[in-house]
């Protein structure tokens, strides 16, 4: 899970330099909400010319996996969120975490607790019966005469009087009575650190100045500040961003889009710049601007314009934004992205055809899936498989029109958009039908479907030989 060749560097605070971090747990994919948190941290650091660090919080060894770590790193790179230095692994620093816990013991801000699971369960049950919040009341809080041969945990001796206040950059001033902060565990009985201790130590040692994260961590901040103050460390600036909700206002779930970043790329066919732009606007705004390039986002981003209310995920808006970025994307790049989605490996000539077709194909696509689907007709083998609606267009009357078009097209000496357009318009005029009356069955014969790029573009892209062969396949009525 760790690279043994990497050192365990500890970064120190560097004056007024802004340092942010993204600290995901490698127990699953890079969640879309986590990706937004990473983006906000990245933008804030880049806006201020600071540092953006990536720390994999793998203290839960039972649930952390190499696959999850790979997915996180891959997702970050896909979104263009580069981090300064190499990624850190929290488990590299367990000895440092334990060192801080023992310093807290020496300072009188922590204690060894020998309470058994049965004693804890009894206190929890009593709190439930009395319908009050469960708070640990350890008889060992003010004792140091514990049995030497019994296991113990190290608990923080949390302040019991007064209140703790956070001047949050998003939530504003938030306060909690210290009586509400329990004596939480710092070191487990096996000597390993808890998340609550590790995150504080790592943030301090890495010089993190701004902790930007989801507001589901706001309650944790009060507990973490108790450690910070007990160690006489500088308190970081907190910014707790509201979570993302579904279109119905409920907590984001898989049916809303709470999927891994890889699903947006691989399964749904979104471009990274579209996902990044959408996540930026999901809880942060700059006037009425919707299309915001990454360089512009770095220039504009601040915490003052992060909203206090949960934002709602809207796939329709994401699709429209993705359609914009597809239309703006380089044709060679798009061809490279959709080639694997088309099917069999494409020859160099077929790839060149795909690039030539891209200006027409991308005009109507909102995802790479739609783009690939729209391109498949270029490479379909004859005779084409007909969509039902397309097959219904091939009536005897329309087959006669196709025969006339085939005859006229076969006489062309040059084959380009203008030449085939003039030819087809003349066929329609001679048959005394509107252009659409001919274009519809012609599209069916050429593509096997009822939608495609402009019919003249289809003819030009397929070339004269392939176009004539496809039309000829459909001229004769099928035999019963």
Automatic annotation (TrEMBL):
Residues 333-474 form the Aminoacyl-tRNA synthetase class I anticodon-binding domain. Pfam families: Anticodon_2 (PF19269), tRNA-synt_1c (PF00749). Its EC number is 6.1.1.17. CDD domains: GluRS_core. It is an enzyme of class 6 (ligase). It comes from the Bacteria. It is found in: Cytoplasm. GO terms for biological process: glutamyl-tRNA aminoacylation. A motif ('KMSKS' region) lies at residues 251-255. InterPro entries: aa-tRNA-synth_I_cd-bd, aa-tRNA-synth_I_codon-bd_sub2, aa-tRNA-synth_I_CS, aa_tRNA-synth_I_cd-bd_sf, Glu-tRNA-ligase_bac/mito, Glu/Gln-tRNA-synth, Glu/Gln-tRNA-synth_Ib_cat-dom, GluQ/Sye. Residues 18-319 form the Glutamyl/glutaminyl-tRNA synthetase class Ib catalytic domain. Transmembrane segments: none annotated. Monomer. Catalyzes the attachment of glutamate to tRNA(Glu) in a two-step reaction: glutamate is first activated by ATP to form Glu-AMP and then transferred to the acceptor end of tRNA(Glu). This is Glutamate--tRNA ligase. It comes from Sphingomonas sabuli.
């Amino acid at each position: 899970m760790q690279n043994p060749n990497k050192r365990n560097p500890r970064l120190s605070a560097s004056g007024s330099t802004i340092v942010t971090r993204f600290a995901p747990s490698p127990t699953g994919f890079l969640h879309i909400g986590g990706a937004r948190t990473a983006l906000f941290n990245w933008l804030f650091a880049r806006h201020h010319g600071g540092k953006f660090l990536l720390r994999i919080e793998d203290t839960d060894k039972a649930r952390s996996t190499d696959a999850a770590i790979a997915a996180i790193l891959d997702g970050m790179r896909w979104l263009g969120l580069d981090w300064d230095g190499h990624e850190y692994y929290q488990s590299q620093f367990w000895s440092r975490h334990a060192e801080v816990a023992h310093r807290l013991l020496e300072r009188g801000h922590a204690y060894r607790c020998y309470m058994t699971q049965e004693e804890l369960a009894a206190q929890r049950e009593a709190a439930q019966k009395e319908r009050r919040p469960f708070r640990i009341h350890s008889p060992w809080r003010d004792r140091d005469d514990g049995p030497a041969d019994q296991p113990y945990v190290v608990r923080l001796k949390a302040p019991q009087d007064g209140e703790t206040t956070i001047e949050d950059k998003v939530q504003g001033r938030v306060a909690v009575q210290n009586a509400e902060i329990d004596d939480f565990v710092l070191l487990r009985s096996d000597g390993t650190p808890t998340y609550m201790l590790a995150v504080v130590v790592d943030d301090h040692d890495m010089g993190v100045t701004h902790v930007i994260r989801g507001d589901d961590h706001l309650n944790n901040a009060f507990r973490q500040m108790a450690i910070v103050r007990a160690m006489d460390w500088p308190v970081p600036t907190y910014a707790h961003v509201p979570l993302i909700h579904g279109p119905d206002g409920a907590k984001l779930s898989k049916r809303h889009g709470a999927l891994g970043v890889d699903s947006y790329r691989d399964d749904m066919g979104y471009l990274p710049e579209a996902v990044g732009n959408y996540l930026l606007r999901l809880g942060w705004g700059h006037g009425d601007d919707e299309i915001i390039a990454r360089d512009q986002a770095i220039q504009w981003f601040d915490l003052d314009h992060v909203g206090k209310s949960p934002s709602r995920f809207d796939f329709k808006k994401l699709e429209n934004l993705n359609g914009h970025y597809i239309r703006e994307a380089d044709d060679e790049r798009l061809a490279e992205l959709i080639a694997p989605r088309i099917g069999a490996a494409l020859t160099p000539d077929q790839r060149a055809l795909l690039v030539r077709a891209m200006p027409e194909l991308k005009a109507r696509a909102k995802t790479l899936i739609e783009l690939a689907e729209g391109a498949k007709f270029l490479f379909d083998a004859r005779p084409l498989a007909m969509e039902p609606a397309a097959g219904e267009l091939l009536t005897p009357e329309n087959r006669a029109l196709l025969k006339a078009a085939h005859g006229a097209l076969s006489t062309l000496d040059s084959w380009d958009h203008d030449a085939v357009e003039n030819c087809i318009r003349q066929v329609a005029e001679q048959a005394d039908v509107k252009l659409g009356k001919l274009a519809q069955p012609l599209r069916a014969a050429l593509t096997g479907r009822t939608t495609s790029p402009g019919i003249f573009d289809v003819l030009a892209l397929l070339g004269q030989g392939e176009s004539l062969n496809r039309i000829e396949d459909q001229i004769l009525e099928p035999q019963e």
